[in-house]
Design brief:
Layout lengths: L1 H5 L1 H22 L5 H18 L4 H9 L3 H4 L3 H18 L2 H6 L1 H10 L11 H22 L9 H5 L10 H11 L3 H6 L1 H11 L4 E4 L8 H5 L19 H5 L5 E4 L3
The chain binds iron/sulfur cluster (2 copies).
One iron/sulfur cluster (SF4) binds next to helix 15.
C-alpha cells in the first residue's frame, strides 16, 4: 500500500508526459507552436523533474538494466509498456518527448538559451556513435557488474538535490557545457535517446520542407544539430523550432512525406 502511494507522483509524471506530448504534437501539426509556448513546457517539465523525478526514462532504463524493481516502482512489464509507448509516440510525431518533456532535456534546452558563444559539432554521427558505445557500456556494466554508469553523470543526485554526493556536481558541470554545446547529455550519453533517435529516423510526422522553400539555407545555419537539411533523417532533431523561426518564407511543416 505504501509503495503504491509512493508511486502515485511518478504516475502523474507519466500522465503529464502523454498529455503534454499530444498537445505539443497538435500545436506543431497545426503550425500553432511558437518558442514562448515551448518555454512554458520546458519550465513545467524541469520543475516536475525536481519535484517528482519523473518522467525520467533515461534513468529508468538503467534501473531496468539493473533489475532494480524497488526503485522502478512498478512491475517490469508496465515499465516496458511506458518505454514502448514513448518510442511509438516518437515514431509518429518526432522527438517531442526529448524536446520539451524529459526534465533532463528540458533543463539543457533552457540552459542553451543563455547568450554565450555556441559551438556546433559538425559530425553528428560521432555523437551518435559515442552515445551508442556509452549505452552498450551501461548495459554491460549493469547486467554483469551491477554498476549504474548513469550515476556517474550525477543526474539522479542533481534532480533529487542530493548535494552530499560528489556526483551531484557533475550534472551542473554538464549543464555549463550545455550552454555552449547543444544538449551534451542527450547527444553523448542518453541511453533512451538511442531508441528515440532510431524511432525518429523512420518517423511519420517530421519537420519537412514544403514547396515554398527558396533554398536560402537559413534553417540549416540555425539548427544546432545539423538536421535541417532537406534530406536529413531528423534522428537528432529535438523539435527546437529554430529552423522554422529562421525560415523567411514559412517553408517548414510538421508533416508526413508527400
Ligand atoms: S535524449 Fe534522453 S535525456 Fe535527452 S531529452 Fe531525450 S530522453 Fe531525455
Ligand atoms: S533546428 Fe534542427 S533540431 Fe531544431 S527543430 Fe529544426 S531540424 Fe530539429
Amino acid at each position: 500500500m505504501i509503495m503504491f502511494l509512493e508511486n502515485i507522483p511518478k504516475a502523474i509524471g507519466m500522465v503529464y508526459a502523454v498529455v503534454a506530448l499530444l498537445i505539443l504534437a497538435y500545436l506543431f501539426n497545426k503550425d500553432k507552436f511558437n518558442r514562448k509556448i515551448g518555454y512554458v513546457f520546458l519550465v513545467i517539465s524541469t520543475m516536475i523533474g525536481f519535484l517528482i523525478f519523473a518522467p525520467m526514462f533515461p534513468y529508468q532504463f538503467q534501473l531496468l538494466v539493473l533489475r532494480d524493481t524497488e526503485k522502478l516502482g512498478a512491475p517490469i512489464p508496465i515499465v516496458l509498456v511506458g518505454f514502448l509507448l514513448f518510442i511509438v509516440l516518437t515514431f509518429v510525431f518526432g522527438r517531442i518527448f526529448c524536446g520539451y518533456i524529459c526534465p533532463i532535456g528540458a533543463i539543457q534546452e533552457l540552459g542553451y538559451i543563455i547568450p554565450v558563444k555556441k559551438f556546433k559539432i559538425k559530425n553528428k554521427k560521432a555523437t551518435m556513435v559515442f552515445r551508442g558505445v556509452f549505452t552498450a557500456g551501461l548495459i554491460v556494466a549493469g547486467l554483469f557488474f551491477s554498476v549504474g554508469l548513469l550515476n556517474f553523470t550525477g543526474v539522479n543526485y542533481f534532480f533529487n538535490l542530493n548535494i552530499s554526493s560528489i556526483f551531484f556536481y557533475v550534472f551542473p558541470a554538464l549543464l555549463i557545457v550545455g550552454t555552449f554545446v547543444y544538449r551534451p547529455f542527450c547527444r553523448f550519453l542518453c541511453p533512451y535517446g538511442v531508441f528515440l533517435s532510431l524511432a525518429s529516423t523512420k518517423g511519420l510526422f517530421k519537420l519537412r520542407r514544403n514547396d515554398k522553400c527558396i533554398d536560402c539555407k537559413k534553417c540549416e545555419k540555425a539548427c544546432p544539430t545539423n538536421e535541417a537539411g532537406r534530406d536529413d533523417l531528423k534522428q537528432e532533431c529535438y523539435m527546437c523550432n529554430r529552423c522554422r523561426d529562421a525560415c523567411p518564407v514559412n517553408a517548414i511543416d510538421h508533416s508526413r512525406k508527400g
